[in-house]
Design a protein that fits this description.
InterPro entries: Adenine_glyco, DNA-3mA_glycosylase, DNA_glycosylase. Its EC number is 3.2.2.20. The structure is a single chain. The chain is mainly alpha-helical. The protein has one domain: Endonuclease III, domain 1, CATH 1.10.340. The chain has 9 helices and 2 strands; from the N terminus they run E-E-H-H-H-H-H-H-H-H-H. Helix 2 packs across helix 3, helix 2 packs antiparallel against helix 6 and helix 2 packs across helix 9.
Length: 195
C-alpha cells in the first residue's frame, strides 16, 4: 500500500487516511520527538497495551488510560499496590489485561530507578540509529530493527516488562527516534530529527 491522498491534497498511509482520530494523530503527533520522562513513560505504556490490538482502540481509550493511571505520572504509578491493580482490572474503560497492567506498574518503578543513571529519556534515545528507513510503501516499513532489539534487551535488564523488539520499534517510530513516514508523505522529515 502506498500513500492515500486525502481531500486536503495530503498523502498519508492507509492506516491514517480515513479515521479522523488516526488522521489527526498522524498529522500532529506520530513521529514527533518526545524527549521527556513523563511523555516517554506514557507512550511506552500505551504501546505495551496496544500489543495485539489496534492503535485506534488505544487512542480511543487514551483519556480513560490517563485517568486510570493518574496521568501516567511515574512516581504515582510506581506507588501502586495490589489494590490499585485490582481496581484497574475492573475498569471497563481501559484494556483490562493483568500482565499489561502489572507491566505498567513495574515499568513506572523501573522508570523512577533509571533516574540515578540519567533517566528514561536519555536511555531510550541512546538507541537512535545512524540511519532511518526510507519506505515507499507500508510493506517497506520494518517491524523491528537491531536497535529495537537492543533497546528491548536493555530495558528488560533494567526491570521493564512487556517491551519486546516489535513494541519497541513502534515506540521508536511514535516518538521520533525513527522516521518511517512514507516517502512523499507530508509528514516525512517534519520531526527535525531526520531530513
Amino acid at each position: 500500500m502506498s500513500l492515500v491522498v486525502g481531500a486536503d491534497g495530503l498523502g498519508r498511509p492507509s492506516w491514517a487516511a480515513h479515521d479522523p482520530l488516526l488522521r489527526d494523530y498522524y498529522d500532529t503527533e506520530w513521529g514527533m520527538p518526545v524527549r521527556d520522562e513523563h511523555g516517554l513513560f506514557e507512550r511506552l505504556s500505551l504501546e505495551a497495551f496496544q500489543s495485539g490490538l489496534s492503535w485506534a482502540t488505544i487512542l480511543r481509550k487514551r483519556p480513560a488510560f490517563r485517568r486510570a493511571f493518574d496521568g501516567f505520572d511515574p512516581d504515582r504509578v510506581a506507588g501502586y499496590d495490589k489494590d490499585d491493580a485490582a481496581r484497574l482490572l475492573t475498569d471497563a474503560s481501559i484494556v483490562r489485561n493483568r500482565r499489561k497492567i502489572e507491566a505498567t506498574i513495574a515499568n513506572a518503578r523501573a522508570t523512577v530507578a533509571l533516574r540515578e543513571s540519567g533517566g528514561l529519556a536519555d536511555f531510550i534515545w541512546s538507541f537512535q540509529p545512524t540511519e532511518t528507513p526510507r519506505p515507499l510503501t507500508q510493506g517497506d516499513v520494518p517491524t523491528q530493527s537491531p536497535e529495537s532489539l537492543a533497546l528491548s534487551k536493555a530495558l528488560k535488564r533494567a526491570g521493564f516488562a512487556h517491551v519486546g523488539p516489535t513494541t519497541m520499534f513502534a515506540l521508536m517510530e511514535a516518538v521520533g527516534i525513527l522516521d518511517t513516514h512514507l516517502l512523499g508523505s507530508h509528514r516525512r522529515g517534519t520531526s527535525g530529527v531526520w531530513s
